[in-house]
């Protein structure tokens, strides 16, 4: 939410401005009492019929965001709900700023989702999308914000295995994000995330060929990266890996192999901060091995199973058993029974 021009620090707007400056410096603990004082003064103004509910809503929004940043999610939820109530009353002229209301509603949903209350969160995200679609005070619609709320509404359903119900929300999210923000700027990384989750739902519904097309679209978007900031190669790797999985399911392992190899390369490049997800890397390495095994190239596959097992030992202990079992099966295909038995012993699977 944009802040109003600051006044002296004894005025709620001045305190609000000072608090936002501290937030920008990464000092939420120091900002918190300023936001609390600003909110108290703004509420006093309202009680004396001299206030502006929309201004109060903006302060409460930042107060809630500060609490959320400090990990106090329950307290943040309460402030975001108060921010919604204030924003619904409008500005000093009674005019509702729908974009500000949508931002508050979205963060109520965010808190509820963080607390595991997805059913309630989904309803709030739906309200936020509806409010954002009404535009700002000039009537301009930020379709990216609409799409973001639609995406989160669909994600709530997807997390509970309701792929069929989640799908239309996510498809609407993609359509909204493709229109861009209030300045018609499209965020490819955000769009790619919605394309990927849509594809996940299609795959869960058994629509593998449709899912393949959506995963391919997600890769194209993710490779372009966000509007501001570095590309997350980890996200690209996950999408490439899902393409490989779809192609294997469609009995096209030769087509899947280059996608699996490209997934490994991307995951090794890390996320937007350059951090490598070893669990994701283990999965990508094993996908290459599985694909080579499906092509009958067992000697090559074993090299990749070894690499996957070594990576799992360092970063994905829970996934090590599956990798060892797959490697053992490959060794048996090669007739190397003693080695296979050793891998099975490490995996804790029966020898035979």
TrEMBL record:
InterPro entries: TPR-like_helical_dom_sf, TPR_rpt. Pfam families: TPR_10, TPR_12. Keywords: TPR repeat. PROSITE patterns: TPR. The keyword Signal does not apply. TPR repeats lie at residues 57-90. This is Tetratricopeptide (TPR) repeat protein. It comes from Nitrospirillum iridis.
């Amino acid at each position: 939410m944009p802040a109003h021009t600051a006044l002296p620090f004894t005025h709620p707007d001045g305190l609000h401005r000072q608090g936002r400056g501290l937030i920008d410096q990464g000092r939420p603990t120091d900002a918190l009492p300023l936001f609390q004082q600003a909110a108290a003064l703004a509420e006093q103004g309202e009680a004396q019929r001299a206030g502006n509910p929309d201004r109060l809503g903006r302060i409460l929004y930042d107060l809630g965001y500060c609490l959320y940043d400090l990990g106090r999610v329950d307290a943040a939820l309460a402030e975001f709900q108060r921010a919604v109530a204030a924003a619904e009353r409008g500005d000093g002229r009674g005019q509702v700023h729908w974009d500000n209301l949508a931002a508050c509603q979205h963060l109520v949903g965010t808190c509820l989702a963080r607390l595991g209350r997805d059913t309630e969160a989904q309803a709030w995200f739906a309200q936020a999308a509806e409010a954002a679609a009404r535009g700002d005070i000039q009537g301009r619609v930020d379709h990216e914000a609409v799409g973001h709320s639609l995406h989160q509404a669909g994600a709530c359903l997807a997390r509970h295995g309701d792929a069929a119900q989640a799908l239309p929300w996510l498809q609407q999210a993609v359509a909204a994000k493709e229109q861009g923000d209030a300045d018609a700027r499209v965020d490819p990384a955000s769009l790619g995330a919605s394309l990927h989750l849509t594809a996940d739902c299609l795959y869960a519904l058994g629509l593998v060929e449709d899912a393949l097309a959506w995963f391919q679209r997600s890769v194209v978007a993710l490779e372009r990266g966000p509007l501001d900031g570095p590309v997350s190669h980890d996200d690209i790797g996950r999408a490439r890996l899902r393409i490989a999985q779809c192609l294997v399911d469609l009995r096209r392992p030769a087509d899947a192999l280059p996608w699996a190899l490209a997934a490994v390369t991307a995951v090794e490049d890390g996320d937007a901060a350059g951090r490598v997800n070893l669990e994701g890397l283990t999965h990508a390495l094993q996908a290459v091995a599985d694909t080579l095994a499906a092509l009958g190239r067992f000697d090559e596959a074993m090299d990749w199973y070894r690499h996957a097992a070594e990576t799992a030992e360092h970063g994905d202990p829970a996934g090590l058993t599956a990798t060892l079992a797959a490697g053992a099966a490959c060794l048996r295909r090669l007739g190397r029974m003693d080695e296979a038995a050793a891998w099975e012993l490490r995996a804790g699977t029966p020898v035979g």
